[in-house]
């Protein structure tokens, strides 16, 4: 009787170890797969309503990134308290009321670059023009 109880307890313990081992491995594999996924966006930089092309890059990134972070790491950018004031040495000119403005997938931006979480496939167009 005692031997039978020990055998059952051993089988239950082995089953629990198997379940825990498999679930941790699955979580680790899912996390690793998510880290390997690379997203892409296209960033176009121009002035005067697109008349003068300044730069264009396809940027690959992983995880959650803001437009501001990607601009800082992929372009020569200057900012003033988080507002982009210069891209690739082309500065905005408040005296002429020319500022850097951007659109996402053809729609004017409704948030600052620091707050915009980019998504795979986004097309960002920056343009320096009078507002």
TrEMBL record:
Keywords: Signal. PROSITE patterns: PROKAR_LIPOPROTEIN. Residues 1-28 form the signal peptide. The keyword DNA-binding does not apply. The keyword Signal applies. InterPro entries: Transcobalamin-like_C. It holds the Pfam family DUF4430. Residues 64-129 form the Transcobalamin-like C-terminal domain. Gene3D superfamilies: 2.170.130.30. This is Transcobalamin-like C-terminal domain-containing protein. The lineage of its organism: Bacteria, Bacillati, Bacillota, Bacilli, Bacillales.
């Amino acid at each position: 009787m005692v031997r039978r109880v020990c055998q059952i307890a051993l089988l239950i313990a082995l089953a629990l170890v198997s379940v825990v081992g498999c679930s941790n491995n699955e979580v680790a594999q899912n996390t690793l797969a998510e880290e390997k996924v690379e997203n892409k966006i296209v960033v176009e930089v121009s002035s005067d309503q697109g008349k003068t092309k300044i730069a264009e890059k396809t940027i690959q990134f992983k995880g959650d990134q803001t437009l501001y972070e990607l601009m800082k790491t992929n372009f020569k950018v200057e900012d003033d308290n988080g507002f982009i004031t210069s891209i690739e040495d082309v500065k905005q000119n408040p005296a002429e009321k020319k500022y850097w403005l951007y659109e996402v997938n053809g729609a004017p931006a409704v948030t600052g670059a620091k707050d915009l979480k980019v998504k795979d496939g986004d097309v960002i167009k920056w343009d320096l023009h009078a507002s």
